[in-house]
Specification:
Blueprint: E1 2-4, H1 8-21, E2 27-30, E3 45-46, H2 53-73, E4 80-81, E5 84-88, H3 91-106, E6 112-115, H4 116-122, E7 138-142, E8 146-147, H5 150-163, E9 167-170, E10 174-179, E11 185-190, E12 193-196, E13 200-202, H6 208-215, E14 222-233, E15 241-244, E16 249-253, E17 258-263, H7 277-290, E18 299-309, E19 316-319, E20 325-329, H8 339-352, H9 366-369, H10 376-379
Parallel strand pairs: 1-2, 1-13, 2-9, 5-15, 13-20
Antiparallel strand pairs: 3-8, 4-8, 5-7, 6-7, 10-11, 11-12, 14-17, 14-18, 15-16, 16-17, 19-20
Bound molecules: pyrrole-2-carboxylate.
Length: about 375
């Protein structure tokens, strides 16, 4: 098996292929260094409070795997549970959060709608003033919402995969997808030469369309940048993870004490990783409405990552019309939290050639079949 992309989902797939299915002849090809893409450029949030039953079940399995991952890999994942708030500032947003809470509860996920008194009690740092453009009305409260260290996930899976016999090649770029005379995928061409493979998995996040072009597979993916920044480190002050469904901003305090602040995806498509001042200005204005004390902190670093966005804000996982060529893609702004379950289910698919029930709804053909899995409301970082 060749896995293109040495991020958390590619390495996770390699690890589970070797560990769960005994498939040892696995190569992970990474054009840069492992974790250089979206895996190293995300919010580190994990949660399962999605909107659709398909999404909730899928991300809940990821939470389960993540909870046991440190012990399983003998690697400190720095998992810390904070509880996650999705703030609603308008009537329609309150309705959406209520709907999410009810779907979550029906599927056994701990999540409920709370109002201003309880918000004040659970997160006194939040500005509940009515004297702001969009006062907070309610929140979807998801107590299991947590953060864990993104580099630890990448390195934990890489180390686990390596110990099970997987080869990981950094600095190797895929230049072509090789097919036989029947159009079946039989390997890849790389900057280091060709590799034969019985199965090829594209796990490249922002570069998906470049790989699918090589394979002759069409997807409805567009690539948008997502930016974030961190402040200087201060003592622990904010114990909840805060996301605003209407201001499209999120704020959490890292274990190092920095405030990690991000916003919605940029509206334009590009492969530029340039960070912008406009982003810092808008994200800061919104973050200050929620947490005015942030005004006293200096901004230390900002960065940008790629998001391969799908029309319904759900991933694309599974088989394609090219036999033996599989997609793990469409991770938009929600990929890190799915890395564990993505690895587990993609490994099962490749090893058994049977589509696991959990990922069947995310098949590429759903767009042609008009069977979308609409999760835009649960992303909260896009208009
Ligand atoms: O889905 O929790 C999320 C998220 C926050 C920022 C980007 N995505």
């Amino acid at each position: 098996v060749v896995i293109i992309g040495g991020g958390a989902t590619g390495l996770g797939t390699a690890y589970y292929l070797a560990k769960n299915h005994g498939v040892k002849s696995v190569a992970v090809l990474e054009q840069n260094y492992i974790g250089a893409g979206g895996s190293g450029r995300n919010t580190t949030i994990i949660r399962s409070n999605y909107r659709t039953p398909e999404g909730v079940r899928f991300y809940e399995r990821s939470m389960e795997l993540y909870r046991g991952l440190g012990a399983e890999l003998d690697f400190n994942m720095m998992l810390s549970n904070h509880g996650h708030f999705t703030l609603a500032h308008t009537d329609s947003s309150v309705r959406v959060q209520r709907e999410r809470a009810e779907t979550n509860q029906l599927l056994g996920v701990d999540s409920r709608l709370i109002f201003r008194d309880e918000i004040a009690e659970l997160c006194p740092e939040l500005n509940l003033s009515k004297d702001v453009p969009y006062p907070i009305q309610a929140a979807l409260y998801h107590p299991p919402g947590s953060v864990l260290r993104h580099d630890a996930v990448v390195w934990g899976y890489a180390t686990g995969a390596y110990h099970h016999g997987v080869s990981i090649h950094q600095g190797v770029r895929v230049t072509g997808i090789r097919k036989d005379e029947h159009g079946r995928c039989v390997g890849v061409d790389t900057s280091e030469g060709p590799i034969d493979a019985g199965a090829v998995v594209s796990a490249v996040a922002g570069w998906t369309t470049q790989i699918t072009d090589m394979a002759g597979v069409q997807t409805p993916i567009t690539n948008h940048p997502l930016q974030a920044y961190v402040t200087e480190a201060v003592k622990p002050m904010l114990h909840k993870i805060i996301v605003s469904a209407n201001l499209h901003v999120y704020v959490s305090q890292t274990d190092r004490g920095e405030f990690l602040i991000g916003a919605e995806i940029e509206p334009y498509t590009t492969y530029s990783l340039r960070s912008t001042f406009t982003f810092v200005e808008h994200a800061s204005a919104n973050a200050l409405d929620l947490l005015p004390f942030l005004a006293r902190l200096k901004i230390m670093r900002q960065w940008t990552g790629y998001c391969d966005m799908t029309p319904d804000y759900s991933p694309i996982m599974g088989e394609t019309e090219v036999e033996n060529f599989y997609l793990d893609s469409g991770w938009g702004t929600w990929g890190f939290k799915a890395s564990a379950v993505c690895g587990e289910t993609m490994a099962e698919l490749v090893a058994t050639r049977k589509v696991p029930e959990l990922i069947a709804p995310f098949r590429l053909s759903r767009f042609a079949e008009e069977r979308l899995v609409p999760e835009k409301a649960a992303a909260s970082v896009s208009h």
